[in-house]
Amino acid sequence: MPRQLPLPLLPREAVEIEPIPDSSNAVARTWLGDPTSWPAGRLALHGPEGSGKSALLAQAARRLGLRRLSGPALRGVPEGAPTALDDADCAAEEPALFHLINACAAGGHLLLMAGREPPSRWEAHLPDLASRLRATAAAPLGQPTDHLLRALLARHFARRQLRVEPAVQDWLLARLPREAAALAEAAARLDRAALADGGGVTRALARVCLAGLIDGSGEGAPEEDDDSVAGSGVASASMGTLL
């Protein structure tokens, strides 16, 4: 029997932001709300980068008592246990993923996975692994909506106790990549820059500290005063209900 190796636990700091209910993740939240509906106790979340897969997986892992593992570090012959596997489509070793699926099924344990594509499209050279992936229920996540991005950016600022005028937030949302990681990075940079500058967050400050992150395609247009309302292309919306 192949020897078992220590399991690669996913660092808690990798995903700490709670997911925000949104139409883009409604289907996935429905599936996650009823684990008894998962065929063979197995479910895979899938969606584009920045759609919130990791946040949903982490929240479900805490609620359901699943150990959290990382696909890129998955090796050996994992023991069966209730498991949440992030980046499962990037598993370091196909046999390890195959053994994990089998071990969870044999023990009647829940297995929640996340990847960019549906599991039926994950690269699998082992025929038996490909068969099990095709039989895995898939819950899609769409691109984040304007509402979700606005609420997420506001949450980052609130957690840092960073006051940012709505007009500046509009300006940022019109230029930042539509990804959760980009919003988190922007908030961290602005927080450091505002502390160093000793002032508030303005568009002028954002242009400097977010260089390389924001879209500069509109920078040639005449600028309004930072206190004026900036046209963002993002419809005004309240933060909505956050988890």
From TrEMBL:
Residues 229-243 have a biased composition (Low complexity). Residues 217-243 are annotated as: Disordered. Gene3D superfamilies: 1.10.8.60, P-loop containing nucleotide triphosphate hydrolases. Coiled coil: none annotated. It comes from the Bacteria. This is Chromosomal replication initiator DnaA. It comes from Roseomonas populi.
